[in-house]
Amino acid sequence: MDKSIPSLAQAVADIPDGASVMIGGFGGSGAPIELIHALIDAGPRNLTVINNNAGNGHVGLAALIAAGQVAKLICSFPRSADPRVFNAKYLAGEIDLELVPQGTLAERIRAGGAGTPAFYTPTSFGTDLARGKPVAEFEGRSYVQERWLKADFALIKAEAGDVMGNLTYRMAARNFNPIMAMAARTTIAQVSRIAPLGSLDPETVVTPGIFVNRVVLAENPAQEEVLNRQEAVYP
Q1: Torsion of Cα atoms, 55 then 38 then 166 then 182, to 10°
Q2: How far is CA 219 from CA 8, 28, 194, 211, in A?
Q3: How far apart are the C-alpha atoms of 53 and 80, rounded to whole Å?
Q4: Rg of the Cα trace of the chain?
Q5: Are strands 4-5 and 214-217 parallel, antiparallel or unpaired?
Q6: Can you tell me the distance from the alpha carbon of 110 to that of 119, in angstroms, rounded to the nearest whole number?
Q7: Is 223 helix (H, G, I), strand (E, B) or coil?
Q8: Which CATH code is given to the segment(s) 4-117+151-229?
Q9: 131-163: b or e for each residue (b if 16 or more CB lie within 10 Å)?
């Protein structure tokens, strides 16, 4: 099955108002900037976005938030290098925040992809983040129950992909992308290179095509940090 999509706009065209969207990346590393900007152009609103942070500057996730398209953000680090857009929206009461410790966020997403409805972790026990959550004791230590995290769509970035959706990643840009690919109903991957079928070494494939629904080419993808040094603003 050929999963390649001709354009970024077509890849995100059916994401509706109110959708939950996982967006890969750790800061700018592995962030699918081109897909996010295509989503801004498409215009869906009241989105719930799951990401490690809250965006920086005025591009990528920050630009999506600035456009007023995000109703709720689930993340670990809302205070990153330059979170001015999120700060302004949050202080104005225009966006909701669910704060999740980073390891717990990763495990909630992984659990969503693995079909594990809940798990226990000692992280956050005794803090406000554990308020209202079930607690159990194991071997004399208290653990907080956390629920899986899934999404309608995942926007991820990979280095190379074939038309069947098999993906490879570039070093640290891997981060949240593989587990998000598993935890969404529809996974859309932007790749720097579409490889001929059968040309990817199976030993280098991190995300098998079974977890990917669409592959779209984004040659020479932008890097968030470079755009911010240039004081870029999208759109």
Answers
A1: 50
A2: 11, 17, 9, 22
A3: 7
A4: 18
A5: parallel
A6: 11
A7: coil
A8: 3.40.1080.10
A9: eeeeeeeeeeeebbebebbbbbbbbbbbbbbbe
Task: Calculate mean pLDDT across residues 110-134.
Answer: 97
Phi-psi category of 227—alpha, beta or left, where left has phi over 0 and alpha has psi -120 to 50?
alpha
Q: Going by C-beta distance under 8 Å and a sequence separation of 6 or more, which residues neighbour residue 114? A: 182
Strands 135-138 and 141-147: antiparallel
Rounded CA separation 88/66 (Å):
9
Alpha carbons 160 and 172: distance in angstroms, whole number: 15
Q: 0.90 exceeded by the pTM?
A: yes
Alpha helices in the chain (DSSP H): 8-12, 33-42, 60-66, 84-91, 102-114, 177-183, 224-229
Taking only the tens place, the pLDDT of each residue in 51-104 is: 999 999 999 999 999 999 999 999 999 988 888 999 999 999 999 999 999 999
User: In a 3-state reduction of DSSP, which class is residue 77?
Assistant: strand
CA 114 to chain centre: 17
